[in-house]
Amino acid sequence: MTERHLRRPEVEAATGLSRSSIYAMMDTDEFPRPVRIGKRAVAWPETAISEWLSNRPTTKPLAG
What we know:
Structural class: alpha+beta
Strand content: 5-15%
Largest sheet: 3 strands, antiparallel
Helix content: 40-55%
Shape: globular
Distance between the termini: 49 Å
C-alpha cells in the first residue's frame, strides 16, 4: 500500500501552523522535513505528520 502525502496547505490545516512556522520549526529540527515528489514539488508523508501530532507536547491548564 502506498503512503499518502500531504501538500503544504493540508499540513497547515492538520497542524494549525502557518507556512512560516512550519519552515521555522524545520530549521530547528522540531518539524519533519518534506520529501520531493516532483521537480519543484514537495509533500510530507501522512505518517510523519500523524506521528508529530501525537508526540507534540500539550499545554497543561493553569492551576487557579
